[in-house]
Amino acid sequence: MPRRSGGARKPDVDSLLLALFVFAMLVLAAVAAWNCFTRMAEAQEVRASPARTDGPIYDLPKGIGQEIVCDEHNREYLLLTTEQGGVFLMPYMSEDGEQEIMPQA
User: Fold this and answer.
1) Cα separations in angstroms, 97 against 10, 12, 48
2) CA-to-CA distance for 87 and 82, rounded, in angstroms?
3) Which of the two ends of the chain, N or C, has the fewest CB atoms closer than 10 A to its terminal CB?
4) Would you give the distance in Å from CA 68 to the centre of its chain?
5) What is the pLDDT tens value at each position of the chain, 105 positions in all?
């Protein structure tokens, strides 16, 4: 007996697996985006302050800027910048290996 072509079809297993895979990828992308958003929201604010030195902090090549910046807890960092727009931020350490703290004004 031939099959009738007008009846409802059952979805095959491949289509179900594909739909499940797409759904899982969308959930994964949403979780990753949320994680990035929360990390950006928790980023520390850093402000620039005048250096407490008479000259350059380190003897660096020409074209590299350097200044001391601090976060909201007054921990000091050395901010290095290049003329091309490169940026590097590193903790500013004392001779004892401790991170320097900006004096309260």
Assistant:
1) 69, 65, 22
2) 7
3) N
4) 21
5) 555 555 556 668 888 888 899 999 888 888 888 877 776 665 556 565 555 555 667 778 888 888 888 887 888 888 889 888 889 888 888 888 888 887 765
